[in-house]
Amino acid sequence: MSGAALPATSRSPAAARAARPWWLSAPALVLFSGMVIVPLLMTAVLSFNVFDHTTGVKAGEFTLAHYSKVFTDPYYLGIFWHTFWVSGLTTLICVLVGAPEAFVLSRMGPPWRAIFLLVVLAPLLVSVVVRAFGWSMLLGREGLVNKLLALLGIGATKLLYTDAAIVIALVHVMLPFMVIPVWTALQKLDPAVTQAALSLQASQATTLRRIILPQILPGVLSGSLLVFGLSASAFAIPGLLGGRRLKMVATVVYDEYLHELNWPLGAAIAITLLAANLLVMLSYNRLVEGAYRKRMGA
Amino acid sequence: MSFLTLTDLTKAYGDVAVVDGFNLSVEQGEFVSLLGPSGCGKTTTLQMIAGFVDVTRGSIQLGGRDITHAAPNTRGLGIVFQSYALFPHMTVWANVSFGLEMRQVPRTERQERVDAALGLVGLTALAQRYPRELSGGQRQRVALARALVIEPPVLLLDEPLSNLDAKLREDMQFELRQIQRKVGTTTVMVTHDQTEALSISDRVVVMQAGHITQVDAPFVLYENPRTRFISGFVGKANLVPTGQGGALASLRPEKLRFVPAGAGQVDGEVRERFFLGSQWLYRVSTALGELVVVCPNDGTPRLDEGTRCGVAWPAEAVRPLADGAHAA
User: What integer pLDDT is reported at residue A11 of this predicted model?
Assistant: First the structure.
């Protein structure tokens, strides 16, 4: 080896260079492992712990009972189904609203684009809790929406504490997470590509459908994943707008931890949600992106 | 009546006219280049012909039809964009086929025409590739095939070769001309590269600040530049006084030759010498100012820097410039 012939002093800078990326990423690694990995592992361990209603969690004893309860009890299965159903609907509406919104945004002129981008992002600046209370005022029995419906001759409609309220509020919160990736994808489009399609006598609609849409699909895909993942684990909105009766997984986890004090069962539900979320997102990713991987060079 | 006629074509943004009173008639099958520095309005002119930029004033006639305000997707022109603008999510074949699909050409005929177009540009073997899997030159050919397959009345080329490296650009120049001759499509090309414009066009339109300054065949343009700007922009030029009230004339460097001191029109001293492969380029300081002399590298003895020499040129090589008189 030629390295053996080199003096030791020339080797240590090389070693320092090799170590440098680790030092640079150390703060992020410490933060990530401390705040995410460790609590997650602890939650995973907790989910296997035996729980007794009178004595509480038994640290040294392990069982699969909590998981079997989650997977067999129709109550929990129903809540999982409800959660994914609501999240899926929210994602769908976000795609239908957010993608055109991003498209319009990308076509706007310099002053308006910045203004409307801020409008789109504004919800992120307000606390989710405040926004949820805002929606509960709007959607309540005496709320603005019901008054408007009354003006139109439609009688009082129960909106608050229904799935409709949860979906409406979730769409409002999640829309920026759809608009931003789609907008980014649109920004990357070469305007000449659209012109090329037009010069080949494609109509505006055909250009949109066959040229623009396929190219922004990766943006729609990442937006959908963000929206779905965040919706499925949302807590404040379903907690405040779903009331006591309508449950989603995150609110059930909260109940188990703080009302039933059954931490292991709460942990098992949380871990199951994480796994189910991952499963849904990965298969969705594979389904949509697979068709475009070869073409766009993922 | 010529095939493509631009009359008083003007594009203004507010008070600023980017293209001002552009008049040009292009004959069927002709290859015309719009040549000028960046910002001269050549691309805007092309975009107006294509329909991507609204016309402020004037008109565009194509084959007797007024297309001044027609939508871009009703003009049926073939366009090759500077960035090529290929559809990244479609194969080469699908890219070329797209225009025919839009025209509802039946499947079997479409297949034949796409194959023929790909054969024309030599890309038959790459039909199933995606644009990102191609080199710059190959993408350029796909763009050309896509524009030609629809058999457009006019082919518009927007700096088609500017993204290629020097060697490839030269090859593509000749190939582009060859293909254009073969299919006989009327072509308008925008370029800032004078070599490109001179080598492949039938006529060159020189533009400066939104105006046409000269329209001529390449050889005529090179031999008789009308203004100082053109003489400097198209090829190299020495500016020499004509002796008539401070008027200037253009004198091409390759028209000059070295003679013994005292035997030519002016004496001078070789300041610098550059070897360009096929040529030698000398900078000679003389009583007329610095002259650039280009000699073919044909085995004749070369002059060293510092040599005293005479410089001679045939009298007809001195071409007076229209705007020479009010030069600095």
Answer: 60
Q: Do A198 and B72 touch (CB under 8 A)?
A: yes
The closest of B280, B278, B322, B328 to B305, measured between CA atoms, is B280
Residues 6 or more apart whose CB falls under 8 angstroms from that of B77 comprise A199, B49, B50, B51, B152, B153, B154, B155, B156
| B174 part of contact set with chain A, CB < 8 Å | no
Encode chain B (328 residues) as per-residue pLDDT tens digits: 589 999 999 999 988 999 999 999 999 999 999 999 988 999 999 999 999 999 999 999 999 899 999 999 999 999 999 999 999 999 999 999 999 999 999 999 999 999 999 999 999 999 999 999 999 889 999 999 999 999 999 999 999 888 888 888 888 888 889 999 999 999 999 999 888 899 999 999 999 999 999 999 999 999 999 988 888 888 888 888 877 767 888 899 999 989 888 888 899 999 999 998 888 999 999 988 889 999 998 877 788 888 889 999 998 888 888 875 544 3
* Residue B113 contacts A, CB cutoff 8 Å: no
Query: If you count residue pairs, one on A and one on B, with CB atoms under 8 Å apart, how many are there?
Result: 70
CATH superfamily of B4-223: P-loop containing nucleotide triphosphate hydrolases (3.40.50.300)
Strand intervals (E) in A27-181? 49-52, 56-62
Which residues in chain A have Cβ-Cβ distances shorter than 8 Å to B76?
Answer: 201
Q: What is the pLDDT of residue A151?
A: 84
Q: Where are the domains of chain B?
A: 4-223, 237-320
Confidence (pTM): 0.80
Quote the CA–CA distance of B5 and B60 in Å, as a whole number. Answer: 6
State the pLDDT at residue B1. Answer: 59
Using a CB–CB cutoff of 8 Å, tell me whether B53 touches chain A: no
Q: Which long-range contacts (CB under 8 A, 24 or more apart) does A284-290 make?
A: A284/A221, A284/A224, A284/A225, A284/A228, A285/A221, A285/A225, A288/A217, A288/A221, A289/A218, A289/A221
Residues A199, B146: C-beta atoms closer than 8 Å: no
ipTM attached to this prediction: 0.84
What is the sign, positive or negative, of the torsion defined by CA atoms of A28, A30, A31, A35?
positive
> Helix A249-258 and helix A74-107: axis angle, to 10°?
130
With beta carbons under 8 A apart, name residues in chain A contacting B81.
192, 195-196
- Report the amino acid identity of residue A66: H
| Measured distance CA(A258)–CA(B262) in Å, rounded | 108
> Residues 192..211 of A with a Cβ closer than 8 Å to B: which?
192-193, 195-204, 206, 210-211
Does the domain made of B237-320 have the CATH classification 3.30.565.10? no
Question: Same CATH topology for B4-223 and B237-320?
Answer: no
Strand runs labelled E in chain A: 49-52, 56-62
Residue B210: exposure state from Cβ atoms within 10 A (0-12, 13-18, ≥19): buried
Q: Identify which of A192, A202, A297 has the shortest CB distance to residue B85.
A: A192
- Asked if residue A223 has pLDDT above 60, the reply is yes
**Could you tell me the two tokens for B41?**
């309005």
Structural domain A75-296, CATH architecture: Orthogonal Bundle (1.10)
Contact B89 A202 (CB under 8 A): no
Both tokens of B216, joined, read 């001529």
β-strand partners of B270: B284
Interface with B, mutate which of A193, A194, A199, A206 (most B CBs under 10 A)? A199
